[in-house]
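User: Here's a chain of 496 residues. Predict its fold as tokens.
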Amino acid sequence: MKNNGLLTGIVAGIAAGALLGGFVPEAGSAVSFIGHIFIRFLMMLVVPLVMAAMVSGICKLGDIRKLGPLGLRTVFYYLSTTALSVITGIVLVLALHPGKHSSPEEQIAARGGIALPDAAYRIEGNRLMLEGDRLPKKFPASHTIYLNDQQAGGSIVSHLRNGTESFEVSDWKRKNGDAATLSRQGKGITIDRPLEERFSREERSIGDILREVLEGLVPSNLFKAMAENDILPIITFSLLLGAVLSTLGEQGRPVIDFFQSLNEAIMKLIHLVMYVAPVGIGALIAGRLGDAGGFAGFLPELQKLGSYALTVIAGLLVHALVTLPLLLKLFGKTGVSGFARNTSPALLTAFSTASSSATLPLTVECAEEKNGVSPRTAGFVLPLGATINMDGTALYEAVAVIFIAQMNGITLGIPELSIVFLTATLAAIGAAGIPEAGLVTMVLVLKAVGLPVEGISLILAIDWFLDRCRTTVNVWGDSVGAKIIDRYAGRNAPIR
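Assistant: Prediction complete.
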């Protein structure tokens, strides 16, 4: 498929999916399986692509000692751009202060709960009755309900509706952990979202993250790593295999030819998959909006967290439209508009899949075939970037952590902001190239500055949308890096 035709098809798919999922949520959810099949196709190609591209790319170096400068340039670029993105995020969130003037009711609403201080209730057995019709039509049973006047709470088992709001509630207890002796009626309830049902509380230090990254470099079982799409150990094995093959001379030639042929075959498969990309991408967008309840369900959540979302998006735009283009122009000596146009299919795919790893096959294709990046550079830089280069994720984590502090009335000084900078930069390296991986590593940043992990619940409602935005920036940073590094490798081809 020609680049312009593919781009037009993807844009049309996104528009059609947004309209379907936004206006007919049930239909959007129903077609989401098509998008999941599309992602499975892409993920199916990731492991063979990484192995073939990296082995053949290293063998094309001839002298494996040239891999040292290439590797050093790649790691330096990734660390530098990630640090720049974190600085951008910190400056913006401090300047815009999106968490200011937040009342307890606004904080509860921001994390998907409801505060009804004037609502009268009565208890009949395990059923709590709330007069009136004041709650959304679909309220998740996984929430916890608190009786404000008694400071007691319990888990909602089900939400019934018979003229009045009716909840089946289990495990009543007081907030301090003592058993609750409840009066049968009262006034004022709060329905909130328990974080533990949405997010792991596992605590990890900087040392833990670095240790996990280093241990992850060496696979205990290569085939297990392949089965789990664990890219980092596959990269290590491919690097070593390519280096050894390049030293074997004619004896290693058949194996090198195999990997080079495999690389060409995978690229052909990517071409075929891209013919159905508009349909798959449209189904992903339709399904996600459908799951959110359509525009009617998503837009109110976006409005509640509008200042936070705008701050994250503004930071991502500054990094994507100012910082990275400047680097591309100054160090890559490449026109930005043509490069961006050629990369746009990969960027749109990244937005719809929210996964750097799933987008990797298309990122490699755009870099090699349209942007003139040599296969040996693309085969080394891009798979590594999909694993450790997370500019958008690092920026988002810095903004989110400071926003959570602002929402809780906590002021972070220079020492705390320095810790946010360091931990967000390093934690992004440990974030997997899968949807919403940034939420996992954010625990590290929150713990580093002494903020409550529960603060993550404030941003969960719209994280799925921001995840797509930051993944797009991650892929854009990978692509720009491949072009810049390829220029200094001395084999930069012109953009077509």
